[in-house]
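Hello forum,

I keep getting stuck at the same step: I have a sequence, I want structure tokens, and every attempt I make locally crashes halfway through. Rather than fight my setup again tonight, could one of you with a working pipeline run this one for me? It's a single chain of 234 residues.
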Amino acid sequence: MTYIGQGLGEAVRLLLQLDPAVLKVAWLTLQVSGLAALISVVLGVPLGCALATRRFRGRGALVSFVNVGMGMPPVVVGLLVSLLLWRYGPLGDWQLLYTPWAMVIAQVLIAAPIVASLSFSAIVSLDERLPLQLLALGASRLQADRLLIKEAKLGLLAAVIAGFGRAVSEVGASMMVGGNLKDETRVLTTATVLEVGKGNYELAISFGLILLVLVYLVVAVLTVLQQAGKRGCS
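Reply #2:
Ran it on my machine without issues. Output:
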């Protein structure tokens, strides 16, 4: 309990004093995970919508592949990205390994399947006659997709929240491809693991609490948007 109390006190002190080192880590965390979540939404929502509204050969296998991606171990993703970005790997000339961009790539591979699968579920949960009705009324395929996304916006916002939460909480792959380098690729999750390994539990608790506050603020904004959409539908 002493560690917890001291950790909470240290977190409050760091927040109130606006410690530059902590702010830099928190800002990088928001940048990396926010960008990863945004890319995951841009890729995942259209994919989920396409899987829900289109019928084509191999659709079932692709849906299963996306669902498997929801449970993909982060260390496997980290290993895959490391091999691709390694100096002698296929993308080694890009020199992205141990940079924030490598962490973004890894987090996208982890979060995008979650967004796609939940988006697929949100669209499928709508009345199956709705797409046919929209097309019968003269809507183009693209217009029908937009209307379906609008109807399923509550479920899609839940997918966005889940995608961001998965990205910002990731640690294994981020350490593998980012290296946890001070002032370069150190984010709140990897900083917490580092401090625990060094026995600095008070500082680790501080980083953990700051991460919770950051996640709460972002998710709170998304939740407000979700509830506003719910009221708009009622």
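The domain at 2-233 is CATH 1.10.3720.10 (MetI-like fold). If your local run keeps crashing, start a new thread with the error log.
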